[in-house]
Amino acid sequence: MLFFFASLGLLILGFFVYGSVVERLFGADPARTTPVCTMADGVDYIPMPIWKLYLIQLLNIAGLGPVFGPILGALYGPAALLWVVLGTIFGGAVHDYFSGMLSIRSNGASVPEVVGQELGYGFKQFMRAFSILLLLLVGVVFVLGPAKLLENLTGMSTVTWVVIIFCYYFLATILPINQIIGRIYPFFGAVLLFMAVGLTAGLLTEGYDILPTLDFSNLHPKGLPLWPLMFITIACGAISGFHSTQSPMMARCMANERHGRTVFYGAMVGEGIIGLIWVTLGLSFYKGPEALSAALAAGGPAHVVNEVATTLLGGFGGILAIIGVVILPITTGDTAFRSARLIVADFMHISQSKAARRLAIAIPLFVIGIVVSRVDFNVLWRYFGWANQTLAALVLWAAAAWMIKRGKMHWIVTLPATFMTTVVSTYILYEKIGFNLPITVANYGGIACGLVAFAIFMAYFRNRRVADAPTA
Question: What is the pLDDT of residues 414-459, one digit of tens each?
């Protein structure tokens, strides 16, 4: 129990201490005019209060990410807790802060434009295609999962629910951000937090042994390698490239740069806390990875969420479980398609103030999404995991370039960028969806890729300064 509360305390302390360090090194300026003050359009650039920005950002980046990922990550044992805490403070929250703040400094630009400004035209073109592909994967993954669950609950076919969810996605993608997202997201964000706190309280009051073992070796029942699989599996519970596609939406609605630490860094810490709770629930409610594995075999992470919630919180917990496994992924999928629309609009220089222009972009995106939805869910999820963390690495490299070109202390982003490059390289070398190499070979290859990327970056940017660049 003490280890759980110590981990929780470290995450909170990380926001106040390391978050302040990151904010100071970046140079957030409360007197600086933000994009929403000069570019308000009543659609995407709409000012919102900080509390609403925080809750919307939390739900945008969360969905089922800090629930399903940590549940699966708990199979590796308490080592998952260490990654959630350290990954959130030094990786995920830093990534989210820079992706949001660099967007603010670039008039609310989407992530490919921001990366392109710092790493060059080639990376911009690559990021345009890569980020749209990732967003379509997210949108489709978070259609199929809820649709299958709703079929079990209602008896209506999965195809029917896919059509209904896609219709909602379409509305959320083209309507002004304050009409659907700005109204319902704060409520569901609060529900997500309440569910996490309530389940923790239930675990404590029902007398469960919190973290019955603190063995930090690899405890996965099937013997899958902790490195690099755990770092990909937990994903949004520690660091996620998907978040960088969501941060520009709030960057376009933020009236003060000093709100960035709360909205961007703070929302990721909030997600890390939720991830920490679900790893703990997985290891404590089921008394270890073997019991958790058996529960997952009975119905996957959704079954675990339902069983834990209904046992600890009764009938009300069942309602929360339904919200958690149905509504939350839907409220991530819709912003995925909205972000894809904004990315396309940015690189095609199409104003989004008129509905007809939003429709011209949204309709083709949804046609592609519907086609992709016919692919096997499990295949989609594996590719999403790798693509998600690869995007995180690229955004961190862009942030490192922004810092080093302005003579700022870049190590806060260079080191996590190198680490994540090593993770994703090792993963794609090892996994069957990649090169399917032996784990030892993949480990050496991944380390080599990380070191080479670091060496190239330092050699290219060592003596570069943008003396004539804007004061961004």
Answer: 999 999 999 999 999 999 888 999 999 999 999 999 999 999 999 9
- Give the pLDDT score at 468: 41
Phi-psi domain of 86 (left: phi exceeds 0; alpha: psi -120 through 50; beta: other): alpha
CATH match of 2-384 with 1.10.10.10: no
Written as six digits, the tokens of 96 are: 């989210």
Domain ranges of the chain: 2-384
Predicted structure pTM score: 0.91
3-state secondary structure of 149: helix
Amino acid at 398: A
- 30-78 tens-digit pLDDT: 999 999 999 999 999 999 999 999 999 998 888 777 888 899 999 999 9
Give the closest residue to 246 by CA, choosing from 57, 42, 40: 57
Distance CA 313, CA 306 (A): 10
Start-to-end C-alpha separation, the chain: 45
| Burial category of 222 from C-beta neighbours within 10 Å (exposed 0-12, middle 13-18, buried 19 and up) | exposed
Instruction: Give the list of residues 6+ apart from residue 199 with CB closer than 8 angstroms, or none.
Output: 277, 281, 308, 309, 312, 313, 317
